[in-house]
Amino acid sequence: MESSTETVLVTGASSGIGAAVARRFARGGARLVLVARRRDRLEALAAEMGVPVHLVELDVRERDAVEAAVAALPEPFRAVTVLVNNAGLALGQGPAHEASLDDWDAMVDTNVKGLLHVTHALLPGMVARRRGHVMNLGSVAGTYPYPGGHVYCATKAFVHQFSLALRSDLLGTDVRVTCVEPGMVQTDFSTVRFGGDEARAAKVYQGADPMLPEDIAEAVAWCAAMPARVNVNTVELMATRQAFAPYAVHRS
To answer: Is 146 a catalytic residue?
Structure first.
């Protein structure tokens, strides 16, 4: 990873883990393709970087737009060597029989189909060049489901299994695949989940000493920096005060 020969594309790069990943790769001298829906935030992030940056205002749920954006990448950014599929969200935390079908669709469209759209657009080039690393941001929720998690947990279980399936398909191509699965990380994740309710979101992290986006970015960077002969299949990270399940948290 610590090489200017890397070209890293990060989805959901405008905040949280995505922005932290972008900053971490920039410190290693990588060229960056930063993808998100919020152009103003992308521009602010790009202004921090001392490396070449290409910004793409894009909703990964829109299949045709993803294909067009990848096809239109400028020559210096076209040979993406690391894809970080970070875009994702959770909506609501009520029981399944009271949940909004619109929320369910939005989570599947972003966490599953959005990840597939970007991966499908970039993977052939990686295989042709025999060089690439697909990094999928999963979650411990994909392994340890919890009440009110229903579709979000299911989408992250998909990300885990899809990552392993990609590994099988890509055997012999030298393209690597990693699923990074964090537990509690203090970002705007809960604010989005609770429809902008900042007070409710703050209670999720209160007294729990959660991980920070920079912690996850370090894990992503470590996976990418391993020798080409090494594939890190899955990385599961939790805050020290969290154990085994998203709801098993010690608070002080």
So the answer is: no
